[in-house]
Amino acid sequence: MEELLIRAPHRAPESFRVRSLETDIVEEISAEEIKAVFYVNSFDGDAHHESLNFHSRAPIVHGIWMRLQFLDGEVMEGIVYNSIRYLIDPGFFLLPTDPESNNRLVYVRKSWLSDHRVLGMRKL
């Protein structure tokens, strides 16, 4: 999982290219228009999945352990790479820590957050 964080871009994306599964049409969406981009294991997901918080079984990955709350009420936890980019960019990459989550990596726009808290530091 740490490999996903290491391979994450080192600057904020200005737009995202999204391909429709039904039509195969590619659309470019401005990063300013999105809440987050979820890189998932499966498009099926699990509507009944209840998120666990502060996971003891989560892999140990170096970074800042955060709890985020979006403006729409969604809450998630994950690891943020500890760098100046986290502070100055309009968004950041979050590695979810819920071992049962369908999300592999999430790009979060700060403007969509109502709250975010540091829960701790994780060191290798």
Structure description:
The chain is mostly beta strands. Helix content is 9%, strand content 42%. The protein has two helices and eight strands. The strands form two sheets. A six-stranded antiparallel β-sheet has the order 3-7-6-5-4-8. Strands 1-2 form a two-stranded antiparallel sheet. The longest helix has 6 residues, at 2-7.
How many beta strands in the DSSP annotation?
Answer: 8
How far from one another are the termini?
13 Å
Helix content: under 10%
* Secondary-structure content class: mainly beta
Largest sheet: 6 strands, antiparallel
Strand content: 35-45%
Taking pLDDT < 50 over at least 5 consecutive residues as the criterion, the unreliable ranges are none
What is the topology, as strand order, of the major beta sheet?
3-7-6-5-4-8
Give the count of helical stretches: 2
- What order do the SSEs take from the amino end to the carboxyl end, as H and E? HEEEEEHEEE
Cα radius of gyration in angstroms: 14 Å
Query: How many individual domains?
Result: 1
Shape: globular
**Overall average pLDDT:** 79
Short descriptors:
globular; two-stranded antiparallel ribbon; 124 residues; mainly beta
Question: What's the short version?
Answer:
By secondary structure, the chain is mainly beta. Helices cover 9% and strands 42% of the residues. The chain is globular.
